[in-house]
Design brief:
The complex is a heterodimer of chains A (about 170) and B (about 450). Chain A has about 170 residues and is α+β, with helices and mostly antiparallel strands. Chain A is about 50% helix and about 10% strand. The chains are: A alpha+beta (about 170), B mainly alpha (about 450).
């Protein structure tokens, strides 16, 4: 079973989470849905290590190899003597390599973030459009049926003004 | 307590409604404005078609001045594009809380300005249908780009900046697109759902989003600096007197940020006026941007003085010739540039009253941008007019075709912005709410002060 409880403010939402934790609901089954970024730990902790950065690093390395190859191989295939400079000159090769490195690192960071968000997204099926208007949602997944009534009362007591639930079983 | 909560809920909702006002059904005035812009763009398109049909002869470009208004426009627009992403990224990294309402507009400005700017070298080629010759693909003629020329550096840098700025803009918009999605129906909802990539606002999503925004900001700053440095090297790598200077890269970057900050100020004033956003884009924002403009005006003036002093002291005959020719032939333009960029701007911006006056700030910012356009023109044209060989000295003035295309570029920029504000959120709503949430008033001694909670 899955719950989505909506709260008007951070204080009541944090009270709700504390009650859930006291009730021995595993913290990994609890997450918040909000329309603003709440610093880590304000309601829940998301200290898991992000791997999307490696996409950025990999992108940068691929970009560097591509840029370097493009500048050097082109120069070798079509050797042009320009102003007494070597066919493969360090500065132009450096500039081309740098630009491609940055381009691919930026794209890598973005693609990595999208992939990581989709891959690690908690399996939440409930959502409420009130969240985009400032309400704070507390989503609890994998709740057994026998606990559900008790949790619902507890969340209401903490200040939840609306509770949606979905029975996936 | 319950009453206060209800007020908070209403505040958040009504704030979103206010910030999304630009996305409401278009009014008659909106259609008239868009039609006017469309007419100017059409006129520019006709002018360009005439150039395509008759060739570059219809422009003022001729020996020895082979770079005219198109390249002036290119440098100007690339410069204008700078401030958006650069200011946004720097303010994001430095946790400047006041940045939030200006982020989106500034980032969008970057994308549109670079798109408009990137169009000019293509127009300048004269035969844009042969543009693929510049690509590093083995053509039937066996031609390859020469990477020792700064021009391929430029095209690669501009492409990187366009893609990077678009990504930066889109990344910042994802949570706001989810807000728009939640308020839309039917076909629009489908489109915004795709654009919001399934954003729900979970703690995990926010954590990753925040880290990526910071990383992206750190990556885009060196790209922005490199782009205008490379644009300056298009000039500085040549042996043309007046161009071959080591100061050109920082001078161009400073000039770019200068015109860009002024453009952001114009944008803030326009958004305040047309979308009734005075509550979010406050006089404090104008004040802060005014201070930024003042600092950059001082820096630009310092670099200009250093450049001119070196030329004047060395008195190298050919460089001095270019310098005096600029003074004689384009004295009026030179005067406007110096007055507009330094002599009026610097003293005026020292006064808080001026910085907090939208009309004064609008005038100053328009003057700065006019002066910066002139500055770009004076960089491009006079050095080419009087190069090393006196018997090919000449002059240049733009033709109606170039002026029409320039007008169309300004109209195109305004059109892109108008359409953007109609279909996408022009204000970084979630960022603004975050700022409001993280700051609060606190009693301090006998007064109340703003308290800011530092996020990650």
């Amino acid at each position: 079973m899955e719950f989505l409880a909506l709260f008007n403010n951070i204080e009541s939402a944090s009270k709700g989470i504390e009650e859930l934790v006291k009730k021995k609901i595993p913290e990994e089954n609890i997450t918040t849905l909000s329309s603003v970024h709440l610093p880590d730990g304000v309601l829940v902790k998301t200290c898991d290590k992000a791997w999307y950065k490696w996409f950025s690093v990999a992108g940068g390395v691929i970009g560097a190899i591509f840029g370097f190859s493009l500048a050097t191989v082109t120069a070798l295939l079509y050797p042009l003597y320009t102003g007494d400079k070597a066919i493969i000159s360090a500065y132009p090769v450096g500039i081309i390599t740098y630009e491609f490195t940055m381009l691919c690192a930026i794209l890598g960071a973005f693609i990595g973030m999208v992939l990581e968000i989709s891959g690690k997204r908690p399996k939440i099926s409930l959502y409420d459009t009130d969240i985009s208007d400032g309400m704070i949602g507390i989503s609890i997944t994998d709740i057994s049926k026998k606990n559900s009534a008790q949790i619902k009362t507890m969340l209401k007591k903490s200040g939840a003004y609306k509770i949606n639930l979905e029975d996936s079983q | 307590m319950a009453e206060r909560e209800a007020v908070n809920k209403m505040d958040f909702k009504s704030a979103n409604t206010e910030m999304l006002l630009s996305m409401k059904k278009p009014t008659r005035q909106w259609y008239i404005f868009v039609s006017f812009l469309g007419a100017v763009i059409l006129w520019g398109f006709i002018a360009w078609m005439i150039q395509v049909f008759y060739g570059l002869g219809v422009t003022g470009i001729n020996r020895p001045v082979m770079w005219g208004f198109y390249i002036t426009n290119f440098v100007f627009w690339v410069g204008l594009s700078h401030s958006g992403t650069l200011v946004s990224a720097i303010l994001r990294l430095s946790h400047a809380n006041w940045r939030r309402p200006i982020l989106r507009g500034a980032e969008a400005m970057t994308v549109f300005a670079i798109l408009v700017g990137g169009m000019f070298p293509i127009l300048h080629t004269g035969r844009p249908w042969k543009i693929y010759y510049l690509l590093p693909i083995p053509s039937s003629l066996g031609l390859w780009p020469n990477f020792k020329s700064p021009l391929p550096w430029d095209s690669i840098a501009i492409t990187t900046y366009i893609i990077g700025s678009c990504t930066f803009l889109y990344l910042g918009m994802i949570p706001d697109l989810a807000v728009v999605r939640d308020r839309s129906n039917g076909f629009r909802k489908k489109i915004y759902s795709i654009l919001a990539i399934g954003w729900k606002g979970s703690a995990h999503e926010w954590s990753l989003y925040s880290k990526t925004s910071t990383l992206m900001a750190a990556l885009i700053i060196p790209v922005a600096v490199s782009v205008h440095s490379i644009v300056s090297w298009d000039f500085a790598m040549t042996l043309v007197p007046g161009w071959h200077s080591t100061i050109f890269a920082p001078y161009f970057v400073a000039g770019a940020i200068f015109s860009g900050v002024a453009a952001v100020i114009i944008l803030i004033i326009a958004l305040r006026k047309f979308f009734y956003l005075e509550k979010y884009l406050t006089l404090d924002h104008l004040d802060n941007m005014g201070k930024l403009l003042l600092v950059i005006a001082l820096f630009w003036s310092y670099l200009y003085f250093a450049d001119v002093l070196t030329i004047w002291y060395a008195h190298k005959p050919i460089e001095w010739e270019v310098f005096t020719f600029t003074g004689k032939k384009y004295g009026l333009l030179l005067g406007i540039m110096v007055i507009g960029n330094s002599l009026i701007t610097i003293p005026s911006l020292c006064f808080k009253k001026v910085r907090r006056s939208p009309s004064a700030m609008l005038l100053i910012s328009l003057l700065v941008n006019l002066s910066m356009f002139i500055e770009r023109f004076l960089i491009v044209v006079p050095p080419l007019s009087h190069r090393n060989i006196p018997f090919v000295w000449g002059s240049y003035s733009p033709s109606w075709v170039e002026i029409s295309i320039t007008a169309a570029a300004f109209a195109g920029f305004a059109m892109l912005f108008t359409l953007f504000s109609k279909f996408l959120p022009i204000m970084a709503m979630t960022d603004i709410h975050e700022g409001t949430m993280l700051s609060s008033k606190d009693k301090f001694g006998r007064t109340t002060v703003n308290k800011i909670i530092e996020g990650e």
